[in-house]
Amino acid sequence: MTPVRKSHILASSALATIIMLAVGNPASAETTGGGDAAPSSAYGCKSLEEIAELQMIEGKDGMFFRILADLRLQHAFTDQTVDHLAAMAKALEKNGTTLIYVPLPTKSQVLPELVPARASLYGFEAGIATEIYDDVVRRLNEKGVAAVDIATPMRENNRNGFGEYSFFQADFHWTAHGADIAARAIGDRIKGLPAYGDVTPVRFDMKEVPPPEEFSSMRELLQKHCISHVPTVTAHTYEAVRAEDASAEAGSMDIFGSGDEATVALIGTSYSDKPISNFSGYLEHWTGIPVENYSISGGNQFGSILSYITSREFQERRPRFLIWENPIYNNLGQYGGAPWAEIVAASLGECSAPVPAKGKSENAIEADFSATKLSHDDVILADIGSDVSRKATFTLTGADGTVRTRSIERGDRLRSTGRYFFSLGGFPDGSFDKVEVTFDAPVSETTTLSICKTKTGEQS
Predict the structure, then answer these.
(1) Long-range contacts of range 162-165, CB-CB < 8 Å, 24 or more positions apart?
(2) Paired residues of 64 in beta bridges
(3) Cα–Cα distances in Å, from 213 out to 94, 209, 272, 335, 422?
(4) N or C: which end of the chain has fewer CB within 10 A?
(5) Is 443 helix (H, G, I), strand (E, B) or coil?
(6) What SS3 state is found at 70?
(7) Distance between CA atoms of 220 and 92, rounded to whole angstroms?
(8) Collapsing DSSP states into helix, strand and coil, what is residue 122?
(9) Looking only at Cα atoms, what is the longest distance across the chain?
(10) Which H or E element spans position 188?
C-alpha cells in the first residue's frame, strides 16, 4: 500500500467517524450535546466550544484542547510538500548543512489519555491521530529528509517528577519537560548521522532557574469563561550552561574557544522561541553543539525559515545542522510554490554574478534579459544591498509589450533581509525581455540582480 493511498484511507476513516456519530448514533449525540447536557467542568467553565476567537474543550486533569488545531485528524502534508522538503535538504547538503525536520505533534497526539470522550463528536480518534503523525515522518524519511519522530517519546514519557505534562494544561505550547524529551530524540537522531562524525561535542549542563513570567493569550481567553482559576502557565525552568563557561568563572582556562566548531541553527515557531520551555538549551544539552536560535513567534509556517535562509548571515556562515521545527497542523502548501522557490534557491546559493542594471528611479533598478536564456527553474535574486527593505515588486515586460507584476513582502514579524528570490516557475521560457524591481527603500550602488538555480543536478 502506498503512502498516498494510506493517507486517503485515514482521511476516509476520520470522515466515517464523524458520519457515524452524527447519523448512526443519535442517542450519544443527545446525551453529550451542548447546553445543560454537556459534561460538568472542574473549573466551572461554560460555552468553551462556542468561543468565537478560539473554540476549546476541557479534558481530564485540567488539560484544555483547541478544537481546530489539537483535535483535527487531517493535516495538509501532501506529497508535493514532501518533495519540496527533499529538494531543500539536498540543496543544503550540497553546501555542508544537514536539514533536520521536526514535525511538532498536537496535544492530542501526545496526551490522548487526557482527551475527553466528547472529542469524538469532532471526529477525533486517538489511533488515527497517531498514525497520521507517523505517516508524515515515514514519508519524509523515505524521501531522504532526516525527520524526527518526537511524538512517540513524548507520549511514552509525558510527565516529569514534578507532575508537569509535556504540554501546559491551559496553553497549547510545550513545557520544559516536553521540550527536553523532544530535544533528546533529536539529539539521538543527529548523533547517528554521518555529519556528526567529525563533530567535537561540547558539554552543556542544565541549571534550574526561576521561571520567567509567561503570558498566555489562550489561558486569558479561557479564564473569562471559567469561574475557578484554570491552571497557570508555569513550570520548572532550566538554562543550558556551557561547561567551560562554568570553569572560567572558577578561574580555569577556556580550552574550547575555536571559531571552527560546529553549530546548529534552530528555525521554528513560538514553541522554539519561549524562554520558559528553552528548547534551544535542551538541544545544546543533548547534541553537544552550540545552538543559534532564529525562531519567530507569530511567524507562521515560513516566517523564521525565510527570515534566516535569505539572510546574508546564512550565506556567509552556514551551520552544520539546520533544525526546522513546525507544528504538524501548519500547511506548508498554503502559498503554493513561491516560498519553496525562495527556500531552495537560497539553500543552494548558486547565483550568477550581478547582471548589468541601471537605476530606474530612486527606489527601482532595471535590467535587460533579452539575451539571457532563462528557464522556469531559475530564480531572480533582487538584493537591495542592506537590511532596510521589506518589499520588492517585480515588473516583467515581454517583447510584445505584455507586462506582468508580482510582489514579495516580508511582514512585520519577519526579519528584513533586503534579499528577494523571485521564481520564474509561472512564466514560459523567453516570455519577457526586461525586469524592473521596485523596492520600498532607496536603491544604491550595492543594489544588484542575479540569476540563481534551484536544481542540484540530482533526481528527486
Answers:
(1) 162/235, 162/236, 164/235, 164/236, 165/63, 165/111, 165/114
(2) 58
(3) 42, 12, 17, 35, 41
(4) N
(5) coil
(6) helix
(7) 41
(8) helix
(9) 74
(10) helix 176-191
Instruction: Please give the domain boundaries of the chain with CATH numbers for all domains.
Output: 3-345 (no CATH), 350-452 (2.60.120.1380)
Alpha helices (H) in 215-322, listed in sequence order: 217-223, 243-249, 270-273, 279-287, 303-309, 312-316
Fill in the amino acid letter for 180: D
The overall pTM is greater than 0.85:
yes
Per-residue pLDDT of the chain (460 residues; tens, 9 = 90+): 334 334 444 443 443 444 334 333 333 333 333 334 567 899 999 999 999 999 999 999 999 999 999 999 988 899 999 999 999 999 999 999 999 999 999 999 999 999 999 999 999 999 999 999 999 999 999 999 999 999 999 999 999 999 999 999 999 999 999 999 999 999 999 999 999 999 999 999 999 999 988 999 999 999 999 999 999 999 999 999 999 765 555 544 443 444 568 899 999 999 999 999 999 999 999 999 999 999 999 999 999 999 999 999 999 999 999 999 999 999 999 999 999 999 999 999 999 999 999 999 999 999 999 888 888 899 999 999 999 999 999 999 998 889 999 999 999 999 999 999 999 988 877 778 999 999 999 999 999 999 999 987 644 3
Residue 455 is placed in which grid cell? Answer: 536544481
Residue 367's Cβ-side half-sphere holds a number of Cα atoms within 13 Å equal to 18
